[in-house]
């Protein structure tokens, strides 16, 4: 199919729903560990509590990819029904998760939240490949990254902003502060409204051969067959990108799960209080617990705000790429390599900074790698696979995102960081080393179409 080139605003409209998706991910990534700690989790328990995120991605994204490949509605299209279903479920989960009264309830809501976000997210990746000609793929994924950066920055700053506006950071033992509850409620609203904007402003191409499409859709056991066939025939470029993805996402899972305990302890010197160390029946100790807990909650606001910097940095990086790729080609391989290595240094320097203000520089560097992770691998992949199977391919590619996170959550990050010492900040050093390895693994990519788009007419 000959696809026309889209304008910036057409690409913006089809990508705008990612603002809400990233609100959900940023609130989850920046504050879920804080919620776990507030409800009594130890820092060594946090990675395992996060296992819901990668496991739901492993299960949900390939399923949604296959289903959306075989969906067509003249009114709703192929991908948009899944945007909408995921948005409704995600908004409900976002609103409810900070109201959890026990650790197991919060962990359960994380399962629901992540599964719901994945229902919306996977089809967005496929939509870019569905709608854009190959020459605009990098441009399309970079616009998505621009919107993701906006969402990350704003959502990460919400609790701090609400606190400055007078919403309380103080709460009883085992209760999530009101500043976090209100932030998650705002995130729920943004999630739903931004998805609705894309649903109602974007159209989709129908299948090229509707008769063949209907016959294919009616085949029995198509779901398992599609997954099995595509795993067996996985392109070499996809496998090589999988190695890069493994180390990239191991690093970022480490950040999302352990940045709050690492930075509140090492940089702000306000670790989460352990309730068993205080006798709450003694007024002085109860007051001391409240003082220490409030200091932890306030420094957690700052950690979340600093983490938002990587969203702002990725947004600026994406904007530069948008301006450049709208007119020129880029070498995706080297852009991705340099970006990942710079992010690795951003993580490593966290252990050695003299004051928390220097976290801004760390997260700026991390944002460069994040901006690249959200665009370059997908642009490289979409230029080297069958466009008719873009949904299932993008879903299977998600395996290389979730498997490293599962490895990390099942003890990988605790084991590796434990080799460096008991301090929580060592997890950030591990993240940095992992990201540098990911950058160097880009040398494995040799497919010319993946590295730089080549038109046959050129």
Distinctive features:
disordered C terminus, mainly alpha, Growth Hormone, Chain: A, 19 helices, 458 residues, single chain, globular, 72% helix
Characterize the structure shown.
This protein is mainly α and 458 residues long. It is built from 19 helices and no strands. The chain has a single domain (8-204, 225-451), classed as MFS general substrate transporter like domains (Growth Hormone, Chain: A), CATH 1.20.1250. It is 72% helix and 0% strand. Helix 2 runs parallel beside helix 5, helix 11 (236-266) runs antiparallel to helix 12 (283-325) and helix 17 (399-418) crosses helix 18 (426-440).
How many strands in all?
A: 0
- Helix share, percent: over 70%
Rg over alpha carbons: 22 Å
Number of domain modules:
1
Distance between the termini: 19 Å
CATH architecture, please?
Up-down Bundle
CATH topology: Growth Hormone, Chain: A
Low-confidence segments? 454-458
* Largest sheet entry: none
